[in-house]
Specification:
About 25% of the residues lie in helices and about 35% in strands. The chain is α/β, with parallel strands linked by helices. It folds into two domains: about 10-420, no CATH class; about 425-470, no CATH class. The radius of gyration is 22 Å and the shape is globular.
Length: about 475
Amino acid sequence: MATQTETSAVDIDRSIGDFHYDVEYGHDAGVGLSDRVVNYISDVKQDPDWVRQFRLNALKTFLGKPMPTHWASKDLDAIVFDNIRYYLAQGTPTKRNWEDVPEDIKRTFERLGIPEQERKFLAGVEAQFDSEAVYSNIKKAVGEQGVIFVGSTEGLKNHPEIFRKWFGKVIPTGDNKFSALNSAVFSGGSFIYVPPGVKVKHPLQAYFRINAENFGQFERTLIIVDEGAEVTYMEGCTAPKFNTATLHSAVVELVALKGAKIQYITVQNWSANVFNLVTKRGLAHEEAEIKWIDCNIGSRLTMKYPGVVLKGRKSRGEVLSIALAGNGQHQDTGAKMIHGADETTSNIISKSISIGTGRATYRGLVHVPKHLKHCKNNTECDALLINATSRTDTYPAITVRGTGNSVQHEASVSQVSAEQIFYMQQRGLSEGQAMSLSVNGFVNDLVRQFPMEYSVELKRLIELEMEGSVG
């Protein structure tokens, strides 16, 4: 078994994020959502006028949209928007030197293994604590290639000619109620620009930490990869266990220009009180490739459907996802692939595991309009039920018009075999070890696609989950 310090920039041991420090906040927008709160955020962040107006218009859109009723609407009833704090920050500028980060925040990230991992294998790191990035650093060699990696606030102020061109273009404010909420109160997140032809050899990493109770985190990430360039971005998320609902509602926009490649890896390990309601979408131009690798663990409810709009000819989109739903948890995850040009290819592979009273839902959308030719899609959804009380649902929506396009869909639901578990127990394994071996076998072909640092931790996490699921 690998140790914590050997494995990942985002260690996903369930217990590692479950701690909390009292922090002195310099900026607090108070509780509830109103024009006053939005203007307070704009004032603190010294937004240009167009951003302030963008926020206020988004607030009107949010207030005018009803809560979703066709998803996990009963779960969403627990969110009381008037009880949430929408902006908390210490009020200190983002630091470039780890030693300059405030001591109480530094203590948090050091406990989570940052910046130790940065020194090992990352090209750059950003660490966000509640509403703001507290640390952002990119290795000199990468910066000298012209790569920009800063927080979203710094991006819109220092690089407006790139930022404004794409901001809100991949995911419009009115896309859904929670993208509108994010557009009104967004803070933090990453802004990345990779110049033409630059291939960033090592991953860029962001880490999002919720420390406060009754809090909402609304980071906004925008990644633009210019022609023929490549980048891998990894994000990790944790929050301590509180009894009150915590809201995480991010918006992520990816733009891959001609021949560019983006790989976006997420490992979330939210505590069981977090509502994780995220909108993620990429725009792939001609011969570009966007790949989402997603691991959804923890949270009370996750609703997340990474998508790719295949705008350019021969562009490719891929979503690989693992969802693990434990007792009292609902993982409502999936993917969206919108084909918009000839010879485009999309691939969706989803695996879910439901334990105890956990529920996993796959919700997918594939759309190929009738005027397109030679488009291909492959969708595979496999679900594993651990207990008789576990639940899984699959809702694929595949629309293919015209001729000359190829689509295939495969779905399976299976239960851990009692005979298989018995056989392994006869060979000296405990019931929990046998269950863990079965589940790891179920996800193994997908886990191999994760970077090695993650795959070790994913297997370890499954072992930890299985310990409490039997007996």
